Amino acid sequence: MNDKYSDKLEVKTKNVINELYLKILGRPADEDGFQYWGSLLESGKITKDEMRQEFLNSYEYKTFRANKTIKIKSTIDIIKFNLSNIDVLIEKIKLSHNSWKDSKSTVYKYTDYKTNVRDVINSVFTNYEFPKYDLNQLHVHFAQFIKNLESKQMYSKYRPYPIEYSIENDSGLLLYLICKILKPKKVVETGVAYGLSSSYILQALHENNQGKLFSIDYAFKPWESKHMIGSMIPENLRYRWKLIYGTSSKKLKPLLNSIKPIDIFIHDSAHTYNNMNSEYQTAWNFLIKDGLLISDDVGSNNAFYDFTNQKNLKPELFSQMNENFQKYYKEHNVKTKTFLGIVQK
Ligand SMILES: C[S@@+](CC[C@H](N)C(=O)[O-])C[C@H]1O[C@@H](n2cnc3c(N)ncnc32)[C@H](O)[C@@H]1O
User: Fold this and answer.
1) What is the pLDDT of residue 60?
2) Over the stretch 311-334, which tens digit does the pLDDT of each residue have?
3) CA angle 166–170–171, rounded 5-degree value
4) Helices (H) and strands (E) in the chain, counts
5) What residues are in contact with ligand 1 under a 6 Å CB criterion?
6) List of domains in the chain
7) E strands within 124-209?
8) Paired sense of beta strands 262-267 and 212-217, if any
9) pTM exceeds cut of 0.85
10) What confidence category does residue 273 fall into, taking pLDDT thresholds of 50, 70 and 90?
C-alpha cells in the first residue's frame, strides 16, 4: 500500500512544487513540503506566484543564498591565497581533480582486518616484548588542547581543521607501540594537522632516547597557518621533531635523499590515489630492510591495495571504526570504514 501524500496530488501541482523547490531552494521537495504546499495550491488558498514569493521570503532561501555566497567567496579566497604560490595552486587543483576521479571508481573492500592493537602488534612482530606504557600524561595534554580548541571558531587560524580529521586514538597507540618495539632512528610522516600522530611517535622516541621524526605538511587555505601545524605536540617532545613545510610532492623525495635510509614511513596527507601511490613508491625505495610503510585511510581508494599487490606484500589492516569515528560519520551521514594499513619491506 502506498500512502505517500505526494502520490495523491495532481501531476500539475506536483510539478509546480518540485519546480519551485529546485529553482529557489536548490533541492527536491520533501513529503512535508508536498503536503503543506499541495493542500494550499489545490484548495486555491494560494497561487503559484504567491508561493514563489513565500519561498523568496523564507529563512531557508536566505540561508541557502548566504551559504552559496560563502562557498563562492571561500573558493575565491583559496585561489587568491595560493596565487602567491602557483605550484601549490596547481597541486591543489590536481588533488581536487583526483579526489573527484577517485569518487567514481570502485574501491576494494577489505574483510581481513584486526580490530585490536595487540593483535596487530602480534602479527607484525615476532620475538618481542610487549612494551609497558603509561600515556596518561599525554592524554591529559590532548584533552586540554581539544577543550581549548573547541572554544575557537571553525574555520579560523586557531581551528583550521575539524579535530575529527586527526588520527584516531587507537591508531596513535599503535604507532607509539610500533616505535617502542622497533626503536627507529628515522621516521617520516606526511600529514600532521594538529600533530596527534606526531605526538604519539615522539613520545615513543623520547622514551627510547633515540630517533627523530620528520613531518611534512603545508597550510593550503587562507585560514590555515604554519603555526597550527603540530601545535598539539607537547613542548617537551619537540626536540626530536622537524617540520618540513611544503607539499609532499615537492618535499618528500628531497627529504628522503638527505636523511636516507629511514625505518618507518607513515602516509596521512591527501588521500587521493595518485598522491598515496606516489608517496608509497617514493618512500619504499628509502626504507631499510624490515622497515615499515604505514598508511592511514587505505580504504579511501585502491592505491594501497594495488601497491601491496604489485609488490606481493601481505598487509596488516587495523580497523579504526571506534565510537568517535562512528559518531562523526553518523552526524555527517558518511558510510565508511577507515583502515590503517601496514607492510614490512
Ligand atoms: C588527516 S590530516 C593529518 C592528521 C594527523 N596525522 C593527525 O594524526 O592528527 C591531513 C593533513 O595532511 C595535510 N596535507 C594534505 N595534502 C597534503 C600534501 N599534498 N602535502 C603535504 N601535506 C598535505 C593537510 O594539510 C592536513 O594537515
Assistant:
1) 83
2) 999 999 998 765 555 555 556 555
3) 60
4) 14, 7
5) 165-167, 190-194, 196-197, 216-218, 220, 247-248, 268-270, 275
6) 5-57 (no CATH), 117-344 (3.40.50.150)
7) 186-190
8) unpaired
9) no
10) very high
